[in-house]
Amino acid sequence: MSSKSNNSSKRLKKVGGAQRLSHQIDRLCEAVERRSSNNDTCGASIKIAMEHLEAISDLDPMNEIYMFATRLFLNKDKREIFVSITQSRVKLAWLISEKNEQDMANNLIMSRCL
Fold it and tell me: Which residues contact 91 (CB under 8 A, 6 or more apart)?
């Protein structure tokens, strides 16, 4: 093989490798963009959770459970569960259950400190 064809072959390999790398980078960028846009639409915002909370007619905004819920919604997973529950009375029961669970955990911590 002559040195000209050898150099040509090396250039083709470099170009082919660069094209593959460029294609892989493009695919990676597309995947990141898809993932970012999915995260924006999949998660329930605090605003949406608050709208669901305010739609519970039996719940007074001055109530302890209401105030607890506003802090609970800082946790994305809890917020998404709350918004996913379809019935208002079940939402309220779930909030009460979450508060009771947190109260028990706090009491356990306090009793260990004494």
Answer: 52, 53, 56, 82, 85
